Amino acid sequence: MAVAWVQRRVVAALLVLVAVQVFAGGGGGGRGGVSAFRLWPKKRTRKDTEGAGNDDTQQLLMGGADYMDGQIIPSSAVAAVNAYASSSVSARECFSGKLPSGMYYFGAAVYNSELIIGGGFTPTEKLSFSDDDSPMLSMNAVNHTFKWTGSSWKVWNQFNVTKGEAHLAVLNGELYSLGSCGRQTRMCLEKYNSSKANEGWHLTKNQLPSVLSFPGVIADEKDSSLFVVGGVQNKHTTRVVAQYSASTDKWFALPPMNIARKSPAVAILGNRLCAVGGVQSTLQYSSRTLYMALRSAECMFLSAPSAGWSLLPLLPEARGSATAFVASNKLYVAGGVHVPLHWLSNRKEDDDLQATVLEVERRPYVSKLDSLDTASSWTNASDSSRLFISSSTLVTVPTKLYSQLCT
Ligand SMILES: *[C@@H]1O[C@H](CO)[C@@H](O)[C@H](O)[C@H]1NC(C)=O
Ligand SMILES: *[C@@H]1O[C@H](CO)[C@@H](O)[C@H](O)[C@H]1NC(C)=O
Ligand SMILES: *[C@@H]1O[C@H](CO)[C@@H](O)[C@H](O)[C@H]1NC(C)=O
Ligand SMILES: *[C@@H]1O[C@H](CO)[C@@H](O)[C@H](O)[C@H]1NC(C)=O
């Protein structure tokens, strides 16, 4: 229903901006700032990006958002990704059990051999406002989680707080969820221990100290850590990177990236943490913040963080809200969009809050970087499947579970 709010005159103004590859997001006028665009999930673990494709695991690309005729269409598809069999990556829709209605930007993880999804947003027709009064798209952050039973999704344990932009990861045998808490422009971290199921989800003692939304998030299960990369802080895209250690329940700052990124696609390749694309607030237009999708990508050695981040070759095309993964030591980035969404006026007292979703340039294909080290460049590596859309959640599942899910 977002299209119902399209204001023709603003569309006209913005088409000019689209032409110069800029899109508006977030508020302006000194109030909003944090973009309302909430479609950018980043759920990956090191296992997801590294371990797939061997005999034990398979990768699934779940949900995401597509854009047609100016509308955002959450996908309920689940696709199997194959980046190993040939030089091009293919995805086929598998899994008859569609995702619960229109949820997107949710997290997914396999916990105790079961596939769990949770959080994210469901579309509504109501507008809401975050703590700093920035408008949020007509979506409700949800607190529910679901478990796949083998034949259907069953409601599982509710989060302690509602969580859009949700990410799930298993660290030290406990299930963690990191996501925007309620309407607030900060992230909340909770965990769940199946041996203490009666305690349900509860917030960890130490929370990410800074205000932040729309970071890229990836878990390193080997290191029992979560990495939180970029995002939006106090109305500006940020270069900051943080690490949470589940073993000590502590947060650490890591060196900032070269480039501020909101919602970069993140992956861990070898010992490197990489951030690909994303968007950046670049300039003000009519007192509003404008965001631009990025072609740059960069990595940092986790073994030598003090050396900081090094830039990779530029992507062939700018991508925001893409999904990154690693297969056979190659870095892939799938899906994403260029001009996803515009939010304009953001005054709370405006009844006719103006929001518009424009035609977006989709990136329904995959780019591949063969090596992080040499002067390699990105190549097209997909069968141009429409399954590669923006904001999909990538999850690695054991082959045994996969063969039940994907027939
Ligand atoms: C979860 O959300 C539902 C409805 O949105 C609400 O009634 C319930 O209180 C919430 N539960 C928690 C734990 O926040
Ligand atoms: C949320 O967490 C707090 C503290 O851990 C706990 O007291 C409360 O019962 C939890 N609420 C829900 C609905 O899980
Ligand atoms: C999960 O709970 C069980 C039972 O209390 C406990 O033995 C185990 O250490 C907990 N796991 C973690 C990682 O704390
Ligand atoms: C990559 O492939 C897609 C789909 O076939 C195509 O639309 C796009 O232009 C290609 N991009 C490049 C840089 O070749």
Task: Briefly characterize the structure.
The protein contains 3 helices and 38 strands.
Radius of gyration: 19 Å
Ranges with pLDDT <50 over ≥5 residues?
1-54, 125-137, 340-358
Helix content: under 10%
**Name of the CATH homologous superfamily:** Kelch-type beta propeller
Average pLDDT number: 76
Largest sheet: 5 strands, mixed
Structural class: mainly beta
Question: Proportion of β residues?
Answer: 35-45%
Give the end-to-end Cα distance, rounded to a whole number of Å.
34 Å
* CATH top level assignment: Mainly Beta
C-alpha geometry: globular
At CATH's second level, what is the architecture? 6 Propeller
Beta-strand segment tally: 38
Ligands in the structure? 2-acetamido-2-deoxy-beta-D-glucopyranose
Query: Number of helix segments?
Result: 3
What order do the strands of the largest sheet run in, or round the barrel if closed?
2-20-21-24-25
CATH domain fold name: Neuraminidase
Can you tell me the number of structural domains?
1
Topology at a glance:
Layout: H1 8-19, E1 23-28, E2 44-45, H2 46-51, E3 57-62, E4 65-68, E5 71-74, E6 78-82, E7 90-94, E8 107-111, E9 114-118, E10 121-123, E11 128-129, E12 135-136, E13 139-141, E14 145-148, E15 153-155, E16 163-171, E17 174-181, E18 187-192, E19 202-203, E20 216-220, E21 225-229, E22 232-233, E23 236-237, E24 241-245, E25 250-254, E26 265-269, E27 272-276, E28 279-285, E29 288-293, E30 297-301, E31 309-311, E32 323-327, E33 330-334, E34 342-343, E35 355-356, E36 366-369, E37 379-380, E38 393-398, H3 399-405
Parallel strand pairs: 2-20
Antiparallel strand pairs: 1-29, 3-6, 3-38, 4-5, 6-7, 8-9, 9-14, 10-13, 11-12, 14-15, 16-17, 17-18, 18-19, 20-21, 21-24, 22-23, 24-25, 26-27, 27-30, 28-29, 30-31, 32-33, 33-36, 34-35, 36-37
Bound molecules: 2-acetamido-2-deoxy-beta-D-glucopyranose (4 copies).
One 2-acetamido-2-deoxy-beta-D-glucopyranose is lined by residues 316, 365, 380, 384.
